[in-house]
Amino acid sequence: MINIFARFRQLSDPEVSDVPYAVNIDKDKCIGCGLCVKQCPTQTLALSEKDAEGRRYVEFVKNCEYFEKICIACHNCEVICPKGALAFPHYYEVKKGYWKTDFDYPDALQNGYPNPFKEKKTPEFATIADKLTETEKVIYQRRSIRIYKDKQVPEKEIHRIIEAGRFAPSAGNGRPWQFIVLRDPSVLAEISEATLKWTTKITKLYQGKNFWRQVLKNSMALFKPAAIDQRPMVAMQALATPAFQDEPLDVFFGAKTCILVLRNSLGISNPDFDAGICSQNMVLAAHSMGLGTCYVGFVSTGMKMDGALKRIKKRLGVRWPYDIATAITVGYPAARIDGVVKREFPKVEWFE
Ligand SMILES: Cc1cc2nc3c(=O)[nH]c(=O)nc-3n(C[C@H](O)[C@H](O)[C@H](O)COP(=O)(O)O)c2cc1C
């Protein structure tokens, strides 16, 4: 009951993040390569028009009609910049309402970097790397990769990644997962196209400033509030907007392989949780091998909601009790992207 009241209260809550938006761009360093623009999941970055000297540089732009500027503060733009020209000195923070973020924000941004040894002053990662295990290094440096080389990953490497998933822990050792490896370009293109159609539909429905949008939002806020958080909504819009005019849209970011992780609905306890653990084993293994990955939640969610995507899923042979838990792109990163980023601090309570 209290939960319902809390959700009703949320209907009047702010939708737009109160992140003080700005990215610091050192124009002298920026070479206008556009890597940060391609990697940005919300398309909050764009290249400027040419200036008097014919130079283009990156700008922080309005990326969304409805929300103006939304950035999920992944800090990937900073880490991908080959010239260290970008600094995003903020975290994603909503101060009140249902979408209120529950983190502690470090006073000095430097403090948001990994500090596993709890040093007084957060160290430069390079100075502690020697003391870390290979596993820790991969965990801290893995980034979602959204730019891939036009090159297929050999089958044996994909097998190696799935093997890492096979050995993941699961409730009751039930291992409620199966895998589909998508490498046929026409199937990937078909899924991408159908996903884009679906996300475009949702974007129109959600972001339109009309009566029906309000009805949809108010009902969803009661039953599935997380689904209408502004962040996935703006990422959906970004997906359907090319980073550069001549670039084709592709929900797989040009990766030549996508692994669908299926979960068995009859699995013990919480099969989605098990499938998530299995997936992250695979993701970490892939990055430790120098490959890049990105979860593509819009594909797996779309395959549960959208008619066209459901039909493709059926053709791929996915039948109850199995369903898609997630989709993971695998490919060769087109630039050096993995690296450390800053993150907020979740509350940690110790009872000693
Ligand atoms: C379940 C899940 C679904 C995701 N879906 C998408 C997606 O559809 N598109 C996308 O660009 N990134 C997607 N991501 C990647 C997140 O945006 C990313 O993990 C987050 O911004 C943090 O950045 P990092 O992975 O580089 O640390 C997803 C991540 C997870 C765990």
Quantity of strands, as a count: 10
Distance between the termini: 34 Å
Number of helices: 12
Specify the helix fraction band. Answer: 25-40%
Average pLDDT confidence is 89
> What percentage of amino acids are in beta strands?
5-15%
The ordered string of helix (H) and strand (E) elements is HEHEEHEEHHHEHHHEHEHHEE
Bound molecules: flavin mononucleotide
Low-confidence stretches: none
| Level-1 CATH class name of the domain at 155-331 | Alpha Beta
Q: Do you know the CATH topology of the domain at 155-331?
A: NADH Oxidase
Q: Over the alpha carbons, how many angstroms does the gyration radius reach?
A: 21 Å
The CATH architecture of the domain at 155-331: 3-Layer(aba) Sandwich
Spatial strand arrangement across the major sheet? 6-7-9-8
Largest sheet: 4 strands, antiparallel
Q: CATH H-level name of the domain at 155-331... which superfamily?
A: NADH Oxidase
| Structural class by secondary-structure content | alpha+beta
What form results from the Cα inertia axes?
A: globular
